[in-house]
Amino acid sequence: MSEILFIGMVLCVLALALTACGVALVWKKKLKNRNLNWHALLAASLTAAVGYGLTQRSPISIGLQDLDLAVSLGLAWVISFIFFWVCIERVINSHRDSVDFQESSVLSMLYTDSRQDDMEFQPTELMTPRSDPVRADAKH
């Protein structure tokens, strides 16, 4: 049982390392939404291949049957694909938003259509409570 846990931990560390490489690629603008699926497929396949190698060729062979091995590697592939894809998608979206709105307020990030560059207001009349408008040119 400890061999299975060791292999699982190695595969988790590998998935985290591949995700960190993906984040670095996003920051260098090499990884975008259009090629994210291919990178996620590559990361998941690499993780499953390492898992296969650890179960078959390592001295800690755990002796899984073929069906158990296929299910385990398939599960490792799916989990690493989802982990890589979700993490990198969130990094891409946050990176794109931070570049677009570097000097904006939070409100303008939420409502991009309501942003106005130069607002010109008409001069207003000064009002006092329960009184008539007081004009600047009026004399008392």
Question: How would you concisely characterize the structure shown here?
Answer:
The protein is an all-alpha fold and 140 residues long. The chain has helices at residues 2-27, 36-57, 66-100, 106-110.
SSE inventory with pairings:
Blueprint: H1 2-27, H2 36-57, H3 66-100, H4 106-110
Helix pairs in contact: 1-2, 1-3, 2-3
Measure the end-to-end span: 94 Å
Roughly what percent helix? 55-70%
Q: What string, H for helix and E for strand, traces the elements in order?
A: HHHH
Radius of gyration: 29 Å
**What is the overall shape?**
rod-shaped
* Oligomerization: single chain
Q: Runs with pLDDT <50, length 5+?
A: 99-103
Q: How many β-strands, per DSSP?
A: 0
Largest sheet: none
Structural class: mainly alpha
The total of helices stands at 4
Beta-strand fraction estimate = under 5%
Mean pLDDT: 76
